[in-house]
Amino acid sequence: MDSDPMLPRSVVLALWLQGVGDTSSAVKSVQGEDEPHEVYGLPGFPDGTDLDTLVTLWTTGPREACALLPAPGDAAGVPAPATHAATESGECVAVTTPAGSWAAVPRVTAFGSHLERGYLVRWDVVDVPTWSTQLLGAIGSLSDAERELRTSLVRATEALDALDVARWRDDAADAIERLRHTHTGSWPVPQLDGRRARVLDLAARLRAIVALGTADDGGAVNTWQVDQRSTALREVDRTARHAMSAATFGAIR
């Protein structure tokens, strides 16, 4: 999301789908500075309908919602009919209502120059089987996520120390400093309880650290070092992606 690249659009949408009172606030938060989002495949509505329609439909009555953040080799709980598209996108939202279960996959197209970048976003809705049991088996509980994140933070710090990013990337020191001052209170999400906020905050920081550490090979002097650091950071990213999902999973009865 252009307004806050640390949070995938699916994470923001999943959180707003739980207990949202004002659909316009939800839509503004998900869209950020994007062009108005369009929705395709929403049952009962024409292709190209607006995001407000999806949010209104999926916040009426009981529902379950969760953001899923797959990567190649790790489906991360995504239902099979949506796995390919979600893995290409890197994210999706799964939702269950009394009418059925779906996954909504955002397809993002950038336009404009690097000085004035814009984004077109299309959400493709796919009918899927009931997904919550499979999801819990894939990502674990919120308490599990919080514990694993703290272990991963040590791994990520060691990997960055080995890479010595502050030395070989001029922008790294500034980026790390920004990470220290980022917090969930400034994010375009509804108010979160303490544990959810902590897990989401730490997971987002870890994913940003991984992005810094994988931008290039840094001070690595041989292929073995590159492979070792890449493996460590991939594992950190997997933990952070699963934790983000755990922090967004919720049900309204």
CA radius of gyration is: 18 Å
Structural class: alpha+beta
Strand content: 15-25%
Proportion of residues in helical segments: 40-55%
Number of strands: 7
Average pLDDT metric: 85
- Through-space gap between termini: 30 Å
What composes the largest sheet?
Answer: 7 strands, mixed
Order of helices and strands: HHEEHEHEEEHHHHHHE
Low-confidence stretches: none
**What form results from the Cα inertia axes?**
globular
Helix run count: 10
Q: Strands of the largest sheet, in order across it?
A: 2-1-6-5-4-3-7
How many structural units, i.e. domains?
Answer: 2
What this model shows, in words?
- This protein is an alpha+beta fold and 253 residues long.
- It has two domains: 9-139 and 248-252, no CATH class; 142-245.
- Helix content is 48%, strand content 17%.
- It has ten helices and seven strands.
- The chain has helices spanning 9-16, 23-31, 51-58, 83-89, 132-139, 142-163, 165-168, 172-181, 194-213, 223-248, and strands spanning 38-40, 49-50, 63-68, 92-97, 100-112, 117-127, 250-252.
- It has a seven-stranded mixed beta sheet with strand order 2-1-6-5-4-3-7, with helices on both faces.
- A hairpin with a 4-residue loop joins strand 5 and strand 6 (117-127).
- The protein is globular.
- The mean pLDDT is 85.
